[in-house]
Structure formats: structure tokens, C-alpha cells
Amino acid sequence: MKKITLVLACMFGMAVTASAQYTGHKFFDNWSIGVEGGTATNLYDWDTPNGGVFGINFTKGVTPVLSLEFQVQAGAGDDVNWNWWRRTNDISHIAVMGNTKINLMNWFGGYKGSPRVFEIQARGGLGYGRFFFPSDGYDGGTSDGNDLNRMLYTLGLDFDFNLGKQKNWTISVRPAALLKGTRDNDPVFKEFKNNKGDSYARTGCDNGASNSYFHNGVFQITAALTYHFKTSNGTHHFAVVQPTEVTKVVEKVVEKPVEKVVEKVVEKVVTKGVNGGGITIEFAQNKAVLTNTAKAKLNAIEKGTSVAVDGYASPEGSKSYNQKLSQRRCDAVKAYLEDRGVKVVDLNAHGAAGAESQRIVYVTVK
After folding, report:
1. CA angle, residues 255, 256, 258, in degrees to nearest 5
2. Residue 248 above 70 pLDDT?
3. Exposed/middle/buried for 66, CB within 10 Å: 0-12, 13-18, 19+?
4. Given a cut of 80, is residue 331 above it in pLDDT?
5. What number is the average pLDDT over the span 262-276?
6. Tens of pLDDT, residues 50-76
7. What is the pLDDT of residues 277-289, one digit of tens each?
8. Judging by DSSP bridges, how do beta strands 169-180 and 148-163 pair with one another?
9. Is 50 exceeded by the pLDDT of residue 190?
10. What span, in angstroms and rounded, lies between the C-alpha atoms of 205 and 82?
11. Rounded to two decimals, what is the model's pTM?
């Protein structure tokens, strides 16, 4: 039990990734519903007659790697996989599970903005099960017929095939091991005798195999059909944020947005001497700090000269932020020049002046 719990904790911890680079991660985004059905057999005695299982699943995608699943499952006629006696009821147990699912393809291969056609997910979880015993005794004998309530643990894989242009439907093959928590006073751990005097010891199977605890686990394989509800980004899954959307998110959260990392070639202005010419001062992205190269250019302007300063920003940021950034760049140039005795008679911050605007300040001699 401790090992299984540790595995689940590790799966959860390693899969939690930042969702700020994706859209569609609001609370009501990335929900899905699925139905499944299949067969189960005893983990110890594989020739035990198979029983049927069916259920319904609700899943919430937390990130492209991590999702959480709530599962309700019932066993139909699979009592011999859990208990040595047969029963007449159609439903032999009900299980309620909370599972953590890790998308191995997105974890190791990265998320490309849309689900792959084929994906593999690892699944593990904890839950609660109720096992229904016959009220008329074990194999014709006598008993109180009390039902059992036990913790359940599951580990498995989902082989997913995502269908449709929007990847809103998924067909899955889901093999898994389902293990039952035990107590020493469980009836299935005692030796029973039926009304013919035949002895059954700790079998869990219908063939009388003795002295095994493996009847506390079954292997099951199911097929599932899942529908993914539409998200707030207009798709049925997470979508990669475009650069403009990232800027808006940063502005809203920290109120201090940054320009996107987009490399562009800055047009050079050839200086034909200081008088009557111009000097182009270049700035790093989202910076208003003069570099040593910029200072060397400004040092060429003689003391007492009058100049005009025009500042710009690249277009990736918001309009208001670009305006403030170009103003800070102008102020930095002005402060440096005035410290050297150069007069700044005209100063204009233009923000981003069109799609080709760059991170520069023009200094023009009057």
C-alpha cells in the first residue's frame, strides 16, 4: 500500500507543470466524460472464468500532461475473481476511484498545441469498493452474508486514439490491475466448508487453489469512448498561447509587461558627421539602459550642442507599454547628454510607430 501511494504521489508531482503558456486551463475547461466496458480475471489464477466490468468516467485536464479522473465502476458476474464462492446477484461489487493520469507522450515529447492521434497515458489511483456477498451462505453453507467495504488501488495504462478534426472524441483501450485492501478478519481469508464437507482455504478462485492472497487483485481490460467538452479557447483541448496573448497575461498579472523575444534587424542610420547628421542609439529588448556602445556614440556630440531626441519601441508589447518604454529610453539619453553639457531642446516618445518600429532612439543635431 505504501509503495503504491508513493508511486501515485511521484506521478502527480512530476506531472504538475505551469499552465501559463496555454489557454483553456480555466476550471470549466478540459472536462470530458466517458463510458467503458470490458472483462476481468483473477491475477493469480488466470483460468478463472472472466467477469464483466462497466463504468463511467469524468476527467479534468489540469495541464497537457496531468489530468484527474473520477471513476465509478461495477462488476457483473465477476464474483469468482474476488471470492471463492459463487453468487447469484448480477452485480458483485461497485468501485469508486480517484485516478491521476499522466500523458506520457506530452511529458516526454512536449505538447504541440493539439492532441496526437495516438497517445499513451499512465493511470494510478485510490478508491473505495463494496463487495456484495450472498445472503444465503457460501456455496450452500451457512453465513451471515455480510458485505465487505475495502480500499482499492489501481495501476494501468490508457492507449488513446483521438478522433475527429477537432480531436473531441477518444477511443481507448485500458488495461489495469485493481487491488483490494485486506484485513485479517475478511471471510475470504478463512477456511470454509460447504454443506458437503469440502474444504476451501484462502482460494479466491473457483477451482480451490490453496493458500494464495492474490485473490485480492484482478486484471481487467476495458474499451472506453470519451467525449471532450469545448473549452473557453474555442477548441476541445489546451491551445498554445500566441505571443500577443502572452503579453496580455503578463500585463494583467504583474502590471509590468515585457516585449516579446522577437529578433529583428535594426536599420542603421549612417552618421555623416555630428552637425546636420543623426545618431542611432540601440537598446536591448525591454530595456532603457545605455550600453557602452551607445555612450561612445553620444560622447561624439560636443558640449553646448542642441539636439532633438526621438524614441521608439518594437511593436510586440501593448500600445500603452510601448509608449512608456520609449519615454524611458528618451529620458535615459537626455539625462546622459545633459550631464555632458549637451542641450536637449526637443524630446518625443513615439512608442511603436508601425509594424517595423525598432528599439532605438534617434538623436538629431539642431
Report:
1. 135
2. no
3. buried
4. yes
5. 38
6. 788 999 999 999 999 999 999 999 988
7. 689 999 998 899 9
8. antiparallel
9. no
10. 7
11. 0.55
Q: How far apart, in whole angstroms, are the C-alpha atoms of residue 97 and residue 114?
A: 28
The CATH homologous superfamily to which domain 278-365 belongs is: OmpA-like domain (3.30.1330.60)
* 94/52 Cα distance (integer angstroms): 12
Q: Give the span between the Cα atoms of 278 and 366, in whole angstroms.
A: 10
344 touches 338 (CB < 8 A): yes
Residue 359 CB-half CA count within 13 A: 22
For the CA atoms of 326, 329, 333, 338, the dihedral, rounded to the nearest 10 degrees, stands at 90
Q: Taking the CB of residue 242, how many other CB atoms lie within 10 A of it?
A: 11
Phi, psi angle pair for 187, to nearest 5°: -55, -35
Please, where in the chain does CATH 3.30.1330.60 lie? 278-365
Whose CA is closest to 45, among 190, 203, 176? 203
| Phi, psi values for residue 108, rounded to 5° | -90, -30
- 2-241: which CATH number, 2.40.160.20, 3.30.70.790, 2.70.40.10, 1.20.1530.20? 2.40.160.20
Confidence of residue 110 (pLDDT cuts 50, 70, 90): confident
188 in helix, strand or coil? helix
Residues of each domain in the chain carrying CATH 2.40.160.20? 2-241
The phi and psi torsions of 233 (rounded to 5 degrees) equal: -90, 5
Say if residues 154 and 99 touch (Cβ distance below 8 Å). Answer: yes
- DSSP SS3 for 81: helix
| pLDDT at residue 146, as a whole number | 57
